[in-house]
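Researcher: I'd like a structural prediction for the single chain below. Treat it as a standalone chain; there are no partners to consider.
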Amino acid sequence: MEKKQLYINLASSVFSFFVSFVITFFLTPYIINNIGKEAYSFFPISNSILNCFFIVSIALNAMLARNISIVRSRGDPESALRYFSSGFYSNIILILLFAPLMSLFVYFVDVFLQVPTKLLTDVRLMFAFVFMSMLIGLIGSVYSIATYTENRLDLRSLGEIIRGGVRIFLFLALFYYFEPSLYFIGLISFLLSIYLLVFNKYISYRLAPELKVNYSKFDFSKIKELLASGSWVSINTLGATLLTGVALVLTNRFISVESGGDVAISLMLPVFITSFISTMASVLQPWLTKAYASKSTGEFVEEVVSAQKLLSLLTTTPIVLLIIFSPSIFKLWIPGEYSNVLDGLSILFLFPILIHGNMWIYFNHGFITGRMKEQSFILLLMSIIVCGVSLVFVLLGGKNIYIIPLMTAIASVLYYLFFIPIQVIGRTGASIKEIYSPIIISLIFSVLFVYLSHLFFDFFYVGKWIGLLFTLVVVGVVFITIHMFLLFNVRSLVAFKKKRFG
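Model: Treating it as a single chain, here is the predicted structure.
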């Protein structure tokens, strides 16, 4: 049943992401056409700033699902209940701390960012709604744990599919009956957060009715434990947030709002792919967490390597396709905003994700094992260096829109390609060949495939959507087929299928 559930989780997650992708893909140009790229750029900026507020809560919530899953696997329901209740009430305390700070930021948003006067009210409202959606998410974060601990991510995917349908309905209704405004994006985010709270609470009750909020089970020692282990997750997230958000925020603040709009649009495709990789990794993580709790170190390493190969197979294909066809996609997707700047920025943002996609499970190894100190510290240090150099560049009058994304890309490649796998090798005793061989094969094949595709690009018909979609399917099938047999020989592929899916 567990093997079948992994297949169900994987299939439902892929379908859920596809639905979300299609909705976002069609809604984004609709939104930009109605409110403009300068106004739209403040939404991804709000998410980057939101992540900075969210850092503290991650110390609690990131390890909560992991710890509850482990103690339940070991037959300790009392500890699970104490983690659950302690996590809930700790989030309530965080909400009381965050609310006034967020209110001050909303009021003084034009001090921190370059905001056109005509957009100031909309930007304030948008930030206010986005922040409120985050606070509601904190209230319901413990209820999303049940799908993880019970390995029923298909139910989480169902919730996301419903959420996507509600999202498109709200956008069309608001933009049809009222004058389109930036703050509608935040308002819809707020309404959807309420829906997710209700949905996750219902699912939690159905899957794990024994996990109930109980004040008498509040255990300060559990909070200290979560903070001790989760603090490095927070530092890790802060580093990742600084590394990915620095280009957009600094471009808006020191170059121009219009340039910030270009960066925001060029980030759309990388954000789609990052979301896809994260979705696929989240399907594999419950399986790996249970493997860590119940298997020997050697068996766990084998599971980790197999999971990374599978993730690489699933995620490298869309990254390569976007690198090859991003100019055609932008021209057809947002013709009114297209420029060569978008192509260059998009590739700068996509290439590090190609590295990350072949490293994500290894990166999460520290989270699963509860050993994130070194990787979090190094990531934060690199992010601070990139932010510092970028800030000096713009303060000295640097206006080149490519420099900051280029510095971010170089730092990401150094961190994910060298530090993370070497750390996993050192901790697990795995051989260099075992860890690096699939990575090198995937990267060399991907770069070679991109190069050859550009040589034969004139043979691809991409003048219309139907031609582009047909070409994406054909080229994608060719790439993933060859990639599959490079990562898995026939015997290992059959053995992998039998072991994972029955």
